[in-house]
Amino acid sequence: MATKQETNLVKYEIECPLCGEKHTVCEKTRKSVAFVKETQVNYRAKYCVCENCNEEENEFVPAKMMDANLSEARNQYRKKCGLLTSSDIVELRELYGLTQRELARMLGWGDATIARYESKFIQDETHDEILRTIRHNALEARQYLVRNKDKFTKKRYEEILASVEEEVSRTSQRFLTIQKLEAEYLAFQSKPELTGKKRLNVDKVCRMVAFFAMHCMPLFKVKLMKLLWYSDALFYKENGCSMSGLVYQHMPMGALPVGNSGIMELVPYEEIYNEQEDYVSYKILPPLSFKESVFSEKELCVLRKVLDKFRDFSGAAMSAYMHEEAAYQQTAERAYIPYSLAEKIEL
């Protein structure tokens, strides 16, 4: 079952199964509903339209597209049930440089288990918890690898071990930074008007940064911090809660999230020194790979609105724009900005 809301995607030439001729067809997407394990999920389904046929019989879905649609429905089920998506599992493998079979062997599972989870099968909660554990804790991944050492050649074991230990070194500092950030936010847990009725989600913050770093190049710290505020504020206005749980302060350059220095430690950036003005700026680096599917449809809608509005703004221009917002004008310097003032923004 699908709604009438449709979006054109691309056009390409194929052998049309409806009219039997080779011609250009239009690939479209629309909101659809499916049942996965007796649970209703909403997802975006792709389909093709043959412009040579009458409107009542001009739609078809090639086999590969059907598989992709089913995969998208299953991933929406996973998100709804709090499970890792197939894309999440692929990213986990890539984090440690593993094939599907190698990850399965490292965890002591059947050789085809991960391949199934990345295609047509949905993992159970026990396996999902294990995957989440090694995704966030490289030390646990190392323990699993050592435990199943005999399932790898000596050379391959040493290569994987080096990759895992490199991640251990990198994430240990990241873990401490996240702990420090979360401790800083303990003081705001009882103040939903400042958190936007949501607990701080550090992963979500980092993904928001990655989204803007991918689409706004170059992106510097001053502009980034305003993009985060507008994203959280607009999401609050439209959905009744913030996107990330960040708390923002009224600062001279505009809204600035509490713990911004910690946020910068968690994202890739480079320092650019201006000799003439003796000033260091921080350029946010785009991610090597990034999938927008990590966001919900509502989150993506807000992020794209903010991007469309401010893509070509400089940091200084965004600060000037922010200074005209009621959220800025109705709060004192260094005061925390209540999300209730987000109701007055217009994008």
Q: Give the mean pLDDT.
A: 92
Query: What order do the helices and strands follow?
Result: EEEEHHHHHHHHHEHEEHEEHHH
Q: Estimate what percentage of residues fall within beta strands.
A: 15-25%
Low-confidence stretches: none
Distance between the termini: 33 Å
Strand arrangement, largest sheet?
1-2-3-4
State the helix count: 14
Specify the overall morphology. Answer: globular
- Structural class comes to alpha+beta
C-alpha-based Rg, rounded: 23 Å
The total count of strands amounts to: 9
Largest sheet: 4 strands, antiparallel
Q: Helicity level, as a percent range?
A: 40-55%
Describe the structure.
The protein is of the alpha+beta class. Helix content is 47%, strand content 18%. The chain has 14 helices and nine strands. A four-stranded antiparallel sheet has the order 1-2-3-4, with helices on one face. Helix 5 crosses helix 6 (138-147), helix 7 (154-184) runs antiparallel to helix 11 (260-266) and helix 10 crosses helix 13. The two termini are 33 Å apart. The mean pLDDT is 92.
Please summarize what this structure is.
By secondary structure, the protein is α+β, with helices and mostly antiparallel strands. The protein has 14 helices and nine strands. α5 (125-136) packs across α6 (138-147), α6 (138-147) runs antiparallel to α7 (154-184) and α10 packs across α12.
